[in-house]
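Reviewer 2 asked us to include a model.

Predict the structure of this chain.
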Amino acid sequence: MRRNLILLLTFISICSLSYAQMVGSPVGNQGQGQWSISCSGSFMNQQVGYETAHSQRWMLKSTYGIVPWMDFTAMIGAADLRLDSPRETIEDYQDKHRFAVGAGLTFTPKHEAPGKPWAVFGGGHFLRFPSKGEFYETVSGQDVIYLHREYRMEYDWREYLIFGGISYRLRNLRFYGCGAGWGISRLEKQMEYHYENIENKEFIKERNGEFQSELWTGALAGIEVVFPKNGYTLSFEGLFYNEKNFILMVGIGQVGILHGDW
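Predicted model (structure tokens):
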């Protein structure tokens, strides 16, 4: 309990320093009936339709061992959202951090052990959060501004990630890599207004829509520093589709079950 409290305080202290929950220590499973807490911060840069999405998140994660080879994870935290439009006449969308929730399962069919440092893992995670904000567009002609358009947006933003890979333990370092597939789904409500000045705003129309991305595939690589005596791990992860689409993560957590005397 004391160790869990220390981790919770550490999470609060690093929120201002670190930026989708990703795989996050996939091999340090908890063991049946055991639980742990961890925290992470991440940054996402992803092309979504015609827009580029940027999001910073920090998450508090609780993991429980259902059976020796499977863990369930619940996550709460905060996520913000910025959408960059390719059109120069549109002012980009930006929203504050809002409450985010997530869940996932991690499977470890082969555990690492002294003399057998390889492990096999896989699983999937889901993240969801709301977002509200505006796009602004100015239409001009002959160097005279004659119309403003305001698009008030409400998003129900959802992300999912599936992964499978291997890890290798070298003393207090654990290296892991895997193939990953991820996607984004969002429900959106748009309220459009036109005006020549802010006092003369006219409601034009309301539109409800849904966006579903393709299943992006890429490579995920991570390194984890294990402090077995203190019971903590420090993780760094990167998920890459190409140079413009990626997620970066840093996290701190409990070490989980160590199979054998390391």
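The two ends are 24 Å apart (CA to CA). Helices lie at 2-14. We have added this to the supplementary material.
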